[in-house]
Amino acid sequence: VLEGNVGYLRIDSIPDQEVLSQLGGFLVTHVWRQLMGSSALVLDLRHCTGGHVSSIPYLVSYLHPGGTVLHVDTIYNRPSNTTTELWTLPQVLGERYSADKDMVVLTSGHTRGVAEDIVYILKQMGRAIVVGERTKGSALELQKLRIGHSDFFLTLPVSRSLGPLGGGSQTWEGSGVLPCVGTPAEQALEKALGILTLRRALPQIIQRLEEALKNYYTLVSRVPALLHLLANMDFSAIVSEEDLVAKLNADLQAVSEDPRLLVRAIMPRENSPKPEPGANEQLGTLPAVPEDEAARQALVKSEFQVSVLPGNVGY
């Protein structure tokens, strides 16, 4: 469990369903139960290069809400000419990880096979934000075949994902899974934690926006509609400050019909860039007030012009 109460689970190989069944109680105690109290989850599959198709429902089911089952994949096997449907499990041992909590999956160019299928399923479900590199685009199952009676062998993919969540027209095989947020694999965890920090702050950000609108916005008649918008806004796709600012401005301005209603992300003071020469003048702010009287008069004259016009009109 990392800083910010973020659960972290790294899986480098996915055993078959039989092994998982034998280890069920052990996994609940030493894996799932430790993660249940976390506020968000990072699933690290950057080093996962192999696994068994039979385990896909097991892993996905712990990340899918109970009460419903979901058809997550259909696997075609060429040698047996059979098709197998994969569904989430109606029941799991222990608890499921809450669907209300954010989840990030980390990937790399070494993420292959069954791990790719799991990444693809979680992404298509809208359950996880994928951060890292495009996955390998490998195959679910490989088989080594002897060529005739020779000493030569040919390794071929013999099973194929038909990907029902993607409409069945195209899956990750051959092309890999494209991350939601692309970044070098070695930086993926740091990037993921930054995304989760932002998403953890969203309720407070929205609360302060609501307070500002109620207390300060001059177009009072439009405030109720804006508050309703904020209360029902979907932030599931927000992965950066830029995303958040763009969405808020587009939606708030559309409802208020006011292009002056703007949200900006302000950098912390210690990280703020130094103002460019002349920035004070452009912003209309005065430099520091000098102690010398003559310097004060010069400063005032540079900023103010005072005249009495014909007709005794002050200017």
TrEMBL record:
SMART domains from the UniProt entry: TSPc
Keywords from the named record: Receptor
GO molecular function, one term: serine-type peptidase activity
Xref: InterPro entries: ClpP/crotonase-like_dom_sf, Tail-specific_protease
SUPFAM superfamilies with a match to the protein in the record: ClpP/crotonase
One GO term of the biological process aspect: proteolysis
Pfam families, per the entry: Peptidase_S41, Peptidase_S41_N
Domain Tail specific protease, residue spans: 1-184
Source superkingdom: Eukaryota
One GO cellular component, as annotated: cone matrix sheath
Keyword Transcription: no
PANTHER family: INTERPHOTORECEPTOR RETINOID-BINDING PROTEIN, RETINOL-BINDING PROTEIN 3
Name of this protein: Interphotoreceptor retinoid binding protein
Originating species: Rhynchocyon petersi petersi
